[in-house]
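Example 3.2
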Amino acid sequence: MQKKIPQRQCMGCRERKNKRDMLRVVRQTNGEVTLDFGGKVNGRGAYVCPDVECLKKARKSRALERCLEVEIPQEVYDRMEREMEAQSHG
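Structure, written as tokens:
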């Protein structure tokens, strides 16, 4: 029997994709919002395609803020964009 691959919905494009192919944005227990590339950080998570465009859509619609139940500062989004671009080039 084939193992079921977990699916998650992107907060930007709203498409369901394999969890492994997505980037997790997590609100940690201390309230800090960060990108989780390994999927292991404790806290409430939301998923975004590893694509800056999806992050921009999620930012515009405030989907991440609703999902994580926290206000996300501008600099956190900027840092996430830089981290995403670094991951895609490295």
